[in-house]
């Protein structure tokens, strides 16, 4: 019952985080200091990706890379910020799910260990009882040998007396 509700809650969290990410993308360029920060991040990202692409395609990497214009940099950084937010929400949900699953597995393992311990204890108790019964059988066989075959029959039927004679009816 709780697992489907938890999964539905995780899906709802991911769904609600998309408009938040879009709001972050829209408001990213309004604050001047934050705007300059994300422009710097976007330019660094542009230089990095361009260098990687040039290396992959075997082109020269020592040439100057033209910076993005300001609006393109803001848009790129805002997209990156939105994607980073969505990724962090999804990552957090995955971590939460893994932890929940591991706790569930730990509980199952502990329950299995308890059941195994109870079975071992029951096995030991039964082994002691079998040993006790074997000892009683050995005692009875010893007493029956002393009384002969008739004593054994009387002893098994429960009609014998202390001296080995049959009780009168």
Automatic annotation (TrEMBL):
Gene Ontology biological process terms, A to Z: regulation of lipid metabolic process
One GO term describing the cellular component: mitochondrion
InterPro entries tied to this protein: OPA3-like
Pfam families: OPA3
Superkingdom of this protein's organism: Eukaryota
Protein name according to UniProt: OPA3-like protein
Organism of origin: Nyssa sinensis
């Amino acid at each position: 019952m709780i697992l489907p509700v938890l999964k539905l809650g995780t899906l709802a969290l991911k769904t609600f985080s998309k408009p938040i990410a879009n709001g972050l993308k829209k408001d990213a360029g309004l604050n001047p200091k934050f705007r300059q920060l994300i422009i710097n991040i976007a330019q660094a990202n542009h230089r990095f990706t361009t260098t990687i692409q040039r290396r992959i395609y075997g082109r020269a990497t020592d040439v100057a890379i033209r910076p993005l214009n300001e609006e393109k940099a803001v848009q790129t950084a805002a997209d990156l910020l939105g994607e980073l937010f969505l990724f962090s929400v999804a990552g957090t949900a995955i971590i939460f799910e893994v932890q929940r699953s591991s706790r569930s597995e730990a509980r199952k393992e502990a329950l299995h260990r308890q059941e195994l311990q109870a079975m071992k204890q029951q096995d030991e108790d039964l082994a002691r009882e079998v040993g006790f019964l074997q000892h009683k059988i050995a005692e009875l066989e010893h007493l029956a040998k002393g009384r002969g075959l008739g004593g054994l029959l009387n002893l098994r039927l429960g009609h014998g007396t202390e001296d080995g004679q049959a009780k009168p009816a």
